[in-house]
Amino acid sequence: MSIAENISLIKQQLPEAATLIAVSKTKSNEQILEAYNAGQRDFGENRVQELLPKYEALPKDIRWHLIGHLQTNKVKQIASFVHLIHSVDSEKLLAEINKEAGKCNRVIPVLLQIFIAQEETKFGFSFEEAEALISASPETKYPNIRIEGFMGMATNTEHEDQVRKEFHGLKEFFGKFEIRNPKFKILSMGMSSDWKIAVAEGSTMIRVGSSVFGNRN
Ligand SMILES: *Cc1c(COP(=O)(O)O)cnc(C)c1O
């Protein structure tokens, strides 16, 4: 199936309130343009070095999402244009994004990445850490960032119950803040293997790579 057909098939199954982020890491500008020409505007990349040349070369109405671990020394390279950073996993990074956003006279929307998987290797805050951070009024301390929600990655497992339980837990946690704060509106969860479960559990943003563009080498 073509990239356009893949996108259309996913969108048919996606609730209207949920957004598809086409994860274009390792994919060529030509492939990204194929998705663009099918109407796709939200794209996700996980490395700054790869995002920069794509941002330069591709249409300027693309909304670029940074979805992978971000080093503080790379923030300034994307601060002027990044649409949403999904992967804020430390307060140090939050402070750096705030600083660079200030230099660009903008407010950068971010999500806190929450650790929900049973794996050792994934980045992110625990529920307790995220709650402590949000309770300390970060919007006062960091006026050039806006925390709009959470991102989470489930355990990479065949056991659907496990994945569902992890997404469900994050949705419940999200609900506590969503009620208090109208700017809190994004729950980024679900990839090619598990986005249908994520959507059933309340995801508002899915990050799908291989099911849009085909497998990565
Ligand atoms: C690569 C990646 C995705 C997409 O993965 P697929 O399995 O290809 O859909 C989603 N989220 C993050 C953070 C990624 O790095």
Describe this structure in words.
By secondary structure, the protein is an alpha/beta fold. The protein is built from ten helices and eight strands. Strands 7-6-5-4-3-2-1-8 form an eight-stranded parallel β-sheet. The longest helix is centred in the last third of the chain and has 21 residues, at 160-180. The mean pLDDT is 96. Pyridoxal-5'-phosphate binds at residues 23, 25, 46, 67-68, 191-193, 207-211.
Largest sheet: 8 strands, parallel
Overall spatial form: globular
Strand order of the largest sheet: 7-6-5-4-3-2-1-8
Q: Give the overall average pLDDT.
A: 96
**Over the alpha carbons, how many angstroms does the gyration radius reach?**
17 Å
Q: What small ligands are held by the chains? A: pyridoxal-5'-phosphate
Count of individual helical segments: 10
Contiguous low-pLDDT stretches (5 residues minimum) are none
Order of SSEs, N→C? Answer: HEHEHEHEHEHHEHEHEH
Helical proportion, percent range:
40-55%
Q: What fraction strand?
A: 15-25%
Give the distance, in angstroms, between the N- and C-terminal Cα atoms.
18 Å
